Amino acid sequence: MRVFALLLMAPMIAFAEDTPVNAGPYVPSPQSVVSDMLKLAEVGPQDFVIDLGSGDGRIVRTAALVFGARGFGVEIKDPLVRQSNAAAAREGIADRVKFIKADLFKTDISQATVLTMYLLPDTVNLLRDKLLAELRPGTRVLSHDYPLSGWIPEKYVQMDLEDKVKISGVTTTLIYLYVVPAKVEGRWQATLPDGTATLSLRQQITRVSGTARYRGKDVPLEDVKLRGERLSFRMAGRELAGRVSGAAIEGDAGAWSAQRVK
Ligand SMILES: C[S@@+](CC[C@H](N)C(=O)[O-])C[C@H]1O[C@@H](n2cnc3c(N)ncnc32)[C@H](O)[C@@H]1O
């Protein structure tokens, strides 16, 4: 079917438990969008890129060919998987990228440092909790055209592309960049140069708020920001920033630290 927009309205069909959900028809991203997505995420040789529903493999292949990354694509249609692996072999990048026939909903994505997708809007949102649960903090997530609801993008770009008219009926193209946040919800015991504080943090994906018990008083945490593993806030007039690593926060320049309270 030529018009992707109509397909977007089609219900996702799972005929039986083992039949993969159709996450979207095969509609390749225009090559210029592929380049823009990878540039927006600042993909480089240190990255491992996973494309969910990889079509002809162009996102992962471009990540390897142009940006020196490694990665894999997961695709449900066997001919597209074979085509992608054959293209990677021709391009001399088969040692760095591979394409596998699998259901994207059941694929282990924990290896990604960059995850890309061009899928139906409903699918993108069905995947949101999997992305937050499986991807490491700091992983960049790129979605072509459709946002993840409730997750504030780090950046997004909008452009008009003639190529998109035959796909979606309009020229509008959007790329959303998200950064997987560390998990900070809960209580933390902080050690500061002049004493201790108990931080109580609430988290809704990237939005964090909270209070601290400090010098016998409850004080609000102000201007709390969380980007990947990086947490910063103001408490009683002082700026605190650091890196969250599992159950610990290491303050910048070793100036403070915190441990999660069980
Ligand atoms: C819109 S295309 C995107 C192709 C490629 N990512 C790109 O941007 O050029 C979506 C792809 O997802 C594949 N797909 C759909 N449901 C899938 C599933 N459950 N598991 C794996 N791949 C799936 C389709 O076969 C199709 O090739």
Q: Give the beta-strand count.
A: 15
Structural class: alpha+beta
What is the total number of structural domains?
Answer: 2
CATH class placement of the largest domain: Alpha Beta
Strand arrangement, major sheet: 8-9-10-11-12-13-14-15
Estimated helix fraction? 10-25%
Computed CA radius of gyration, to the nearest angstrom: 21 Å
How much of the sequence lies in strands comes to: 35-45%
- Global mean pLDDT: 93
The CATH fourth-level homologous superfamily of the largest domain? Vaccinia Virus protein VP39
Instruction: Extract low-pLDDT stretches.
Output: 5-16
State the order of secondary-structure elements, H for helix, E for strand. Answer: HHEHEHEEHEEHEEEEEEEEE
Which ions and ligands are bound to the chains?
S-adenosylmethionine
Distance between the termini: 54 Å
Output the number of helix runs.
6
Question: What's the assembly state of these chains?
Answer: single chain
The largest pleated sheet is described as: 8 strands, antiparallel, barrel
Specify the overall morphology: elongated
CATH topology of the largest domain: Rossmann fold
- In the CATH hierarchy, what is the architecture of the largest domain at level 2? 3-Layer(aba) Sandwich
